[in-house]
């Protein structure tokens, strides 16, 4: 997959089949669009391309909004390559770009610079200054500028449209299975293992503290069953998101206890994939009660993976 941060670096003999948007999460609705893009590209001898933006436009328009994303930029690159896209445009959402009207964007960017011959947009997509670009405008311009345009219908699960917002809300409610069902894969968080208070090792549950990307959405506070990936090896894990209220902690931490594991992994990057929610964050009356709960969480985690293999 070719990655471009500006349009002047792009050149291809083949015209493009392209879709545009944030594609945050790369969920099943996005994959539906990408599968159609690949089909159209194959049938018409076009290269496929995704045009997305960094930073997210909401960071620009609402700088005080505490928006968290489902994907970091690196995760988005990995997903798009996995889905088989030929070209990924990561356009900076700067002043010049955001002031283009919908029609200027189509003429100056999609046609003149990228030679788009087939454009696919989502069912609710708008673009350009003041959201002046929409499917109706594209239909009008397609005849003059000689390109085809297709608007995809929404993808539904249990009669609900899939969207990045709905996935964020599910994660913030601890509804991991619902979020994963909409994503089409297990939601993951990556980060560097850093030193913590090392309380876990004193009670038989040493944890790896993960320093995550500040823009990455974390599910609600609580305990989770996770898969842990360390040096390309996979392990079972119990993960906690919270402030450690039992010992009067204040800082939000992400800590994972890795089952059947005893290695020094400080300063290494690890990934956790969320599989299920165990329980809310709890303030226990004693460390003994905390250990009892951890023992039960470990039992539930081991049973989860036994049943998962059946």
Write up what this structure looks like.
The chain is α/β, with parallel strands linked by helices and 310 residues long. The protein is 32% helix and 26% strand. The protein has nine helices and 14 strands. The protein has helices spanning 28-44, 57-61, 73-82, 95-98, 102-113, 135-145, 164-172, 176-183, 287-309; strands spanning 2-4, 16-20, 47-53, 87-91, 116-121, 148-151, 156-157, 160-161, 188-194, 208-212, 222-230, 233-242, 253-258, 269-279. The strands form three sheets. The chain has a six-stranded parallel beta sheet. The protein has a six-stranded antiparallel barrel with strand order 9-10-13-12-11-14. α5 crosses α6 (135-145) and α7 packs antiparallel against α8. The longest helix is centred in the C-terminal third of the chain and has 23 residues, at 287-309.
**Radius of gyration using CA atoms only:** 22 Å
DSSP strand content: 25-35%
How would you describe the shape? elongated
Briefly note the structural class of the backbone. alpha/beta
Number of helices in the DSSP assignment:
9
- Biggest sheet statistics: 6 strands, parallel
Which oligomeric state applies? Answer: single chain
The strand line-up of the biggest sheet is: 1-4-3-2-5-6
Short structural description:
This protein is an alpha/beta fold. The protein has helices at 28-44, 57-61, 73-82, 95-98, 102-113, 135-145, 164-172, 176-183, 287-309; strands spanning 2-4, 16-20, 47-53, 87-91, 116-121, 148-151, 156-157, 160-161, 188-194, 208-212, 222-230, 233-242, 253-258, 269-279. The strands form three sheets. Strands 1-4-3-2-5-6 form a six-stranded parallel beta sheet. The protein has a six-stranded antiparallel barrel with strand order 9-10-13-12-11-14.
């Amino acid at each position: 997959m070719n990655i471009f941060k500006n349009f002047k670096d792009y050149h291809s003999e083949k015209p493009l089949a392209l879709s545009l948007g944030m594609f945050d999460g790369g969920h099943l609705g996005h994959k539906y669009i990408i599968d159609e893009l690949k089909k159209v590209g194959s049938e018409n001898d076009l290269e496929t391309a995704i045009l997305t933006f960094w930073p997210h436009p909401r960071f620009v328009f609402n700088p005080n909004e505490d928006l968290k994303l489902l994907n970091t930029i690196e995760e988005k690159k990995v997903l798009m390559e996995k889905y088989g896209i030929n070209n990924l445009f990561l356009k900076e959402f700067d002043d010049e770009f955001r002031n283009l009207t919908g029609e200027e964007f189509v003429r100056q960017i999609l046609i003149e610079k990228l030679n788009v011959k087939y454009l696919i947009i989502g069912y609710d997509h708008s673009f350009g200054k003041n959201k002046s670009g929409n499917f109706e405008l594209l239909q009008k311009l397609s005849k003059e500028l000689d390109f085809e345009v297709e608007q995809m219908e929404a993808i539904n699960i249990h009669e609900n449209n899939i969207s990045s917002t709905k996935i964020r809300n599910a994660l913030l409610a601890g509804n991991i299975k619902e979020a994963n069902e909409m994503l089409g894969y297990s939601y993951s968080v990556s980060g560097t293992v850093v030193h913590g208070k090392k309380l876990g090792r004193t009670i038989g549950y040493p944890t790896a503290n993960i320093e995550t990307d500040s823009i990455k959405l974390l599910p609600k506070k609580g305990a989770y069953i996770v898969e842990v990936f360390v040096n390309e090896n996979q392990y079972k894990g119990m993960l906690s998101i919270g402030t450690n209220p039992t010992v009067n902690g204040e800082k939000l931490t992400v800590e994972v206890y890795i089952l059947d594991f005893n290695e020094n992994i400080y300063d290494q990057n690890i990934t956790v994939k969320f599989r299920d929610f165990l329980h809310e964050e709890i303030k226990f009356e004693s460390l003994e009660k905390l250990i009892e709960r951890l023992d039960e969480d470990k039992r539930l985690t081991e049973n989860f993976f036994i049943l998962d293999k059946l």
